[in-house]
Amino acid sequence: MLDTVSVSNERGEIIHRPEHGPENQLNNLRGLLSTLAGLLESSSSSLDKDKLNLVAAGFDDYFFNRSASGKKKEDMERDPLFFSEVVSKGLVGYLKDQFGGGSDVEAGNSRVIGAIKACNQAVVSPAIIELKMAVGIQNMTKDVKDSWTFDIQVLSPTSVIVSTRKQEQHIQNMFRYSWKLAIHISFVPQSSSKSSNDPSKEKEGGTPSPDALPIKVDKVELEVTDMMFHEFIHNNGKL
Asked: What is the pTM of this model?
């Protein structure tokens, strides 16, 4: 998944572009998290490079400086085994430390985690089923390999659009189409007028409690973006 998620700004300019290959998983993860933090935890719509660098440095400290492998950082960075054995197993703890605090990561109250959670095939599956039903049983389709892509467009620190793109192909290869699902998400802190003992107010240290930063889906758009028909030569009833 990490090599399918890109991040763009409000103008649609790509800020984080992933690289393919298992040797790039760690760099893709660090780049994704730090870029999102630089955009979503900024005081403006511009990329906060100080925040980006701070999160990237914290990522390195958490995984590299605590590693007992004895390898050089540049060797660990591109080692798929290090990623699967060290980074994958320690990722939840890192996300809690860096973005959540307590159980907030599970509740999805971090803007960074909230945006990433929408980049999930299970999240968009109901829309895919709806699209397949609309196409009809007679036009059943199959997945096109390696065609999943996700883009997180950060419009502002409180607004993102997570776009999922995928290709489907007719089971008899009569046509192929691409679809796009855009989920418009907003992060809206609740009114600060609540009493100081209200549990929805920020906890000590500035970490929002589960009700302080609700993640709201404002709109979901599903569209077919491209369709291509194939020409066939039938020979003895075979395609």
From this structure: 0.80
